[in-house]
Specification:
This protein is α/β, with parallel strands linked by helices. It is globular and about 50 Å long. The strands form 2 sheets. Strands 3-2-1-4-5-6-7 form a 7-stranded mixed sheet, with helices on both faces. The chain contains 6 helices and 9 strands, in the order E-H-E-H-E-H-E-H-E-H-E-E-H-E-E. Helix 2 links the parallel strand 2 and strand 3. The protein has one domain: Rossmann fold (3-Layer(aba) Sandwich). Helix 1 packs parallel to helix 6 and helix 3 runs parallel beside helix 4. Bound molecules: glycinamide ribonucleotide. The site of glycinamide ribonucleotide (GAR) has 15 residues, from helix 1, strand 5 and helix 6.
């Protein structure tokens, strides 16, 4: 089974969906590590309940992104991590991580990319008054939600939707889609973002 690290910054509902899918056997993966840049984040509690080791760090205590990414890569290598899943990790991935893992890092984003990249994709969709938005799983490159798209689903924006109701609908879809897509990718060999 492929050794995986999940990176997250917040609540970790996607982390939870992934960890549950591993537990019930629908996602064949070995989660070695949670990497978290926010020491108080709820996702850390969730990882502890699954007995998954956690590496937390405080970015501003490092001189640069290169410095903290070197620490992360060291941790990943110590755990034999082969594949990285970003699940609400609210930071751009820099050169150090990309040099070590490009083609083996995926992200989930709460919009039908290329629409509404970056922060608050749900708020952006409401603001734009669109009839539908979506969820996208994509490979990670150095840009903001720009890497090659792997799978997407469309989600309707309903009359009267608030940020909360739309986010709930989107996250429900994320929790179904992400474990399934990760499972498909891990059962194949991926090199340079291309499924071999
Ligand atoms: C998810 O909706 C994810 O798509 C989004 O952050 C949320 C994290 O929720 N990611 C991005 O916006 C990345 N640009 P969670 O902590 O409950 O999994």
């Amino acid at each position: 089974m492929k050794k995986v690290a999940v990176f997250a910054s917040g609540s970790g509902s996607n982390f939870q969906a992934i960890a549950e899918a591993v537990k019930d056997g629908t996602l064949k993966a070995d989660i070695q590590l949670l990497v978290c840049d926010k020491p108080g984040a709820k996702v850390i509690e969730r990882a502890r309940k699954f007995n998954i080791p956690v590496f937390t760090f405080v970015p501003k205590t490092f001189a640069s992104k290169e410095q903290f990414e070197k620490e992360i890569v060291k941790e990943l290598e110590e755990h034999g991590v082969e594949f990285i899943v970003l699940a609400g990790y609210m930071r751009l991935i820099g050169n150090v991580l990309l040099d070590a893992y490009e083609g083996s890092i995926v992200n989930i984003h709460p919009s039908f990319l290329p629409a509404f990249p970056g922060k608050d994709a749900v708020g952006q969709a409401l603001e734009a008054n669109v009839a539908e938005t979506g969820v996208t799983v994509h490979y990670v490159d150095s840009g903001m939600d720009t890497g090659p798209i792997i799978e997407q689903v469309k989600i309707p924006v309903l009359p009267g939707d608030t940020r909360e109701t739309l986010q709930e609908r989107i996250q429900k879809a994320e929790h179904q889609l992400y474990p399934a897509v990760i499972n498909k990718l891990l059962q194949k060999d991926t090199v340079g973002g291309i499924v071999q």
